Amino acid sequence: MNQTTLNLLPVAPTYFDWRGHRIAHYHAGEGEPVLLIHSINAAASAFEMRGPFTGLGEGFAVHALDLLGYGNSDRPTRTYQAEDYIDQIGAALERIGQPVTLIASSLSSAYAITAAARWPDRVKALVLACPTGMGQLSDPAGPIARRIHQSLRGAAGRAIFDRLTSRKGTAYFLRSQAYHDPATVTSATHDGFYLTSRRPGAHYAPICFLTGLLNCDVRSILPTLRQPTLLIWGRQATTTPVKRADAFLAANPRVRLEVIDQASMLVQDEKPAEFNALVRTFLASTVNAMPSHGEPVLS
């Protein structure tokens, strides 16, 4: 179905094929490549990565995706799973063709961790904003959750989704969970989230998220990760509070933590200048990230 392209980032997307579906891929700038992966929620898209996309454009080749079911990518009727998104990240890494720094948000951070472990020669470092997967949003969906998902694939699920992503519902999510300062939720920000949830098929992926089908457990993977990894947390995050960083730090000595004050879950969009400065400092401190024996080295 032909649809008007959503203006999510300052550049128009190109597309690549993933199992017969179109995945929107955005690219700007030149230099070392970074790949931005948005979070998973009812109204997610690359729009929430606009701060890093524009702020890192000088000195980096910045790439971003709309994962399947979101943004300008296709939204087919299917049972979405975490493995779908891990594989899409892998396809994007192959398309970029150079070792990449992955920058991911919330649940997609678990996908990024898994991708980095699966394709270590393609990922040189990770930056994770308020990540999950170390106990939170990690348990696989059981039979009851799968039955609930089946019941929500039709009209009932669409009705729940439409209520959650109404203008009022979207505003509540943004002001109560995504951002700390309500003034951050401008009309442009509100529209960026609301409009992406109005596309046909927009409810299929979020229903899978709500019923746990997109959960991703990295508790056994993170300790094996060789890439240097930076966590950036919004101090006021409530859905993923900063105390959850402890599990990540304990699992792997290569993991560092930086906390940004007066920011919540979407810290990369609420405090983009501070976020981008931390990313630049972190990447400048990592040298020889992909030596021949595969072991990252920090300066």
Keywords:
299 residues, alpha/beta, eight-stranded mixed sheet, two-stranded antiparallel ribbon, 11 helices, 36% helix
Strand content: 15-25%
The Rg value, from CA coordinates, equals: 18 Å
One letter per element, helices H and strands E, the order comes to EEEHEHEHEHHHHHEHEHHEE
Strand order of the largest sheet: 1-2-4-3-5-6-7-8
Total helices: the number is: 11
Structural class: alpha/beta
**Quick one: biggest sheet?**
8 strands, mixed
Number of strands: 10
Write down the overall mean pLDDT: 93
The oligomeric state is single chain
Write the layout of secondary structure elements.
Elements: E1 14-18, E2 21-28, E3 32-37, H1 50-55, E4 60-66, H2 82-96, E5 100-105, H3 107-118, E6 123-129, H4 143-152, H5 155-164, H6 167-178, H7 187-196, H8 204-210, E7 229-234, H9 245-251, E8 255-260, H10 267-270, H11 272-285, E9 286-287, E10 297-298
Parallel strand pairs: 3-4, 3-5, 5-6, 6-7, 7-8
Antiparallel strand pairs: 1-2, 2-4, 9-10
Helix pairs in contact: 2-3
In short:
The chain has 299 residues and is of the alpha/beta class. 36% of the residues lie in helices and 18% in strands.
